[in-house]
Amino acid sequence: MNPFRRRDSRRAGSVAVEFTLVAPIIALLGLAVLDVVDFLRVSLRLERTAGEVANVVAQYQTLRAADFASVFDLAGRIASPYHVTDSDGAVVVSGLANVGNGVIVLWQRRAGSPGYRSAFGTEGGAATIPARSADLVLAIGQGAVVTEVFYARKPWLLSGRFLSGDPFSRLQSFALQRPRMVSILRVSAS
Length: 190
Known about the structure:
single chain, 190 residues, alpha+beta, 4-stranded antiparallel beta sheet, 38% helix
């Protein structure tokens, strides 16, 4: 009997045991990385959707109530395959204006789930400017368009235990634009 052969079989056995112990950890790490990549992909899609919709709305001279159907359809197509205008999310488009007594939410329209509140306030009320957009200053007679996009993301089963908090499951993005054709963008009834 060869003594070298015996040592090789022991080494092969220890490698098999080590692989059996390490493989599940590597698999979980791989799934967590894939989930983080999915999180980033959804976040970037929401950011793009908010920016594109705000850009389109800022080009109107006057918005009609009927125009919002095409605006929300656009948001749904940009965000696809994520259903931001259904029960999984919401799109909120607001017009902010300083008409002499501070910045107010002049008008606000939404599509999707009513469970998401605008960070900028409600129609007719004082506008709340979030800290991440504190550089927005509206002088008297100036306005801005805000598009907020919300989405309820479901983390994968294995990483859901680690990545299940609000920052990973209730995503939101917003974009601000100044109207291009007018100082304050208004909504007409017709």
